[in-house]
Amino acid sequence: MMDTFSRHRPLALLATVVLAQVLLLAFQIKRENNVRLIRYWAVELMTPLERAGTWTFSHVGGIWSGYVGLRNTRAENERLRNDVNTLRLRNRELESESAEAHRLATLLNFKEAHTEAPMLAAQVIGASADPTSHTLFINRGERDHVRRNMGVITPDGVVGKIVEVFPSTAQVLLINDKDSGVGALFASSRTHGVVKGSGDPQPHMDYVVNEEKLQSGDAIVTSGEDRIFPKDLLIGTVEATKPGNPFQVISVRPAARLDRLEDVIVLLSQQELLPKKTEEASDTNDVTPTQSGAQPATLPAPKASGVVTDPNKFKPAATASIQSTVPANKTPAPKPTPQR
Amino acid sequence: MSYMLNVGAHSEPNVEVHKFYSGTIIGTVLLALVFQAFLHKYGRWSELIDLPLLVTIYFGVSRRNPVSGLFLGGAIGILQDALSHDNPIGMYGIAKTLVGYLASSVGARIDTEHPLSRFGLIFLFFHFHQAILAVTQRVLLNHSAPFFTLHLFIDSLVTAAFGVVLFALLDRLRRNS
After folding, report:
1. With contact defined as beta carbons under 8 Å apart, do A198 and A179 qualify?
2. What residues are paired with A182 via a beta bridge?
C-alpha cells in the first residue's frame, strides 16, 4: 500500500492539488439563485444518498409495520370486530328507543291536547293469526277500564274499535276488517257515508251517491253517528272513486298506518275531541302518566293531530293543522248503515 | 548548452536536472506576473503572450520534478487568478498545475533544449492550457469558452516564438552543475 502510494506519489499529489483547487473554485462560484457551487454539489451528492436512505428506511419501516408489527393485529381485529358488533347492536337499540320515544311523545302530545276526553295509551302486543281478519291485541284490558266498542285511534287517525276485552289485554278490530264500519263524512262537503272494511288493506266508503263530486285526497272524518268515535276524527283520504250501482265505489287510504301500528290510544268515552294547538299543549310539562306510567313526561311534542275541523284547510294526516272549532256546513246524506 | 536526447523511463535516474541560483525561480515568477499585469496596460497585443504559462513550462521542464512542477504551476496559476479582478481563484491554478506537472514529466522524457522542440512544447502546452481552461469554465462556470479558434492559434504561435527566446534568456540563470 505504501509502496503503491510512493510510486504514484506525484500523481496523487496532482490529484489532491487539482481537487483542492476545484473545491476552492466551487466555493467561490455561485450558480443561479445565488447558490454556491460547493453547496450545489454537496446537495447533488447527498440527495441520492438521502433518497436511498429514505427509501431503505421506509421499506424497512414498511416491513416492520406491515409484518413484524402486526403480531397483535389479529387479536386486536377480533376485539374491534366484537366492539363494532356490540356498538351496532347498541345503536339499533338506541334507534329503536328513539323511535319509541318519538311515538310515545306523539301520543302524549295528542293526549295533552285533548285533556277533555279521557284516553289511554296502549301498546300493540300482537295481531290476529287469521290473515283474513284485521285485528290486533293491545296491552290494556278490563283492569285498565277498557270496554267493548271503545274507539282506538292514533294521532294520525282512526284505527278501529275494541271488540273483545280480557283482564289485561283487548282485541281491536281495525277499520279495514270486513266486519268493521265507521260512521264517516267528507270533511269538505259533509256528505255522510260509512267506511267499511272489505278484507283488502284499503277500506271503502259506502253509501255515497254517484252525483257526489269527489276528488282524490278529499279528507274523510268520523261523523260521530256510530256512537263509538267522536266527531271529526280523521279516518283517511279518498284514494280512488268509480261509479257504482246505486252508490259510488270509493277506495279510502287510512290516515293511520294500520300495518305499522305499535302504540295506539284508546278513547275511554265518546267525548268529542276539541281541537287545540299542539304548541300550547306542549308548554305543559307536568304530564300525568297513564295507568301504566309508560309514557315519558319530557319528550318533545310532535305536531300531529287526527282531528279535522276545517275542511278547507285540511292537509294529509302528518301535517294536518287545527284551525277552527266551528264545523263546516253539513249536507244531508243517505242514512248510513248502523255499526254492528 | 546541453541537449538531452530522448530518454526512457528506465533512464530517469540519469536525467540531467538543471538548478538555478537561489531566488531565481521566485523572482522570475513574480516578474512574469508583474509584466503580464503591466503589459495589459498597453493594449491587445500583450494578451498574445502568457508569460506565467511560459515560466511554468520552463521551470517544469528544467526541474523535471513533477511534484515541484505541479506546486509551482499551481502557485503561479493561483497568483494569476488573484491578480485578475474577476477570475475565481483556482481557474488558472488548475490549468497551470496540470501544465506544470506535465511539463516536468515531459521534460524528463524528451529533449527540451532544442529551440524547435521548445517551440513545439510551448505550442502544445498553450493549447492544453487553453483546453483545461475551457473545460473548467464550461463545467464550473457554465461559460461557453472555446477550445480552439484562429485567434488562439495565432496566440499560440506568438507565445511559442516568444517562449523560445525567453527560454534562451532564462537558460542563463541556470547554475552550473
Report:
1. no
2. A195
**Contact between A18 and B88 using a beta-carbon 8 Å cutoff:** no
Check residues A173 and A108 and name the one with the higher pLDDT.
Answer: A173
A322-331 burial, b for 16+ CB within 10 Å, e for fewer? beeeebbeee
Q: What is the pLDDT of residues A12-63, one digit of tens each?
A: 888 988 888 888 888 888 777 777 787 788 788 888 888 898 898 888 888 8
Q: How far is A145 from A119, CA to CA, in rounded Å?
A: 10
Q: Residue B95's domain spans which residues?
A: 16-175
- Sole residue written with cell 524528451: B110
Q: Where are the domains of chain A?
A: 36-68, 98-281+302-319
Q: Tell me if B10 is assigned to some domain.
A: no
Q: Do B94 and A10 touch (CB under 8 A)?
A: no
Which of the following CATH numbers is that of domain A98-281+302-319: 3.40.50.2000, 3.40.50.1950, 1.10.3570.10, 2.40.10.340? 2.40.10.340
- Measured between beta carbons, the chain A residues lying within 8 angstroms of B101 are 10, 14
> Residue A289 to residues A33, A103, A130, A283: CA-CA distances in angstroms?
83, 15, 34, 16
Whole-number Cα distances in Å, A188 to A157, A183, A327, B21, B173: 17, 16, 10, 137, 137
The answer to whether the CB atoms of A25 and B88 lie below 8 A apart is yes
CB B155 within 8 A of CB B102: no
Q: Nearest by CB to A14, which of B70, B77, B140?
A: B70
Domain CATH number, residue B156: 1.10.1760
CA distance B120 to B69: 19
Say what the ipTM of the complex is: 0.77
A38 touches chain B (CB under 8 A): no
Give a yes or no: residue B60 inside a domain.
yes
Number of folded domains in chain B? 1
